Amino acid sequence: MDVGIELTLPTGSATLLAGSTAVRPFVSGAIKLGPLALIANLSHQWVATGPVSGVQQFQANTALGYPLDRVTPFVELSLIKPVQGIDDDRPQVYVLPGLEVFLPWSLSLSVGVQLPLTSARSFEQRILGLLKRQF
What we know:
The structure is a single chain. The protein is an all-beta fold. The protein has one domain (about 1-135): Porin. It contains no helices and 8 strands. It has strands spanning about 1-10, 20-35, 35-50, 55-65, 70-85, 90-105, 105-115, 125-135. It is globular, with a radius of gyration of 16 Å. It starts with a strand and ends with a strand.
């Protein structure tokens, strides 16, 4: 189980979502189900500054992966529910097929493509990457 705070800093164009600063407290947990790994995450995001300041949203993610030596293919399901600051408050649902590669020095690289499953969406698709170091 992990508890933490994610801070998103503005990068890129100030006219896009990349120009925003956001704070996202989260809690996550994981369990092994035989050969499968199940991970769940709950968070609440506040956008403090930028073109979409004042927006708040709740997010729930669950991912299922199958470890294969140094690689884990996975699929993640995300539900994003706008809470405040957005006219369209319909829930957004995304699926993210991806791959996590375990590297030396307690590093891992996760990559995937996030695709919308509903007509309510902030984007058509996005490529996500995450480099993690285990402590």
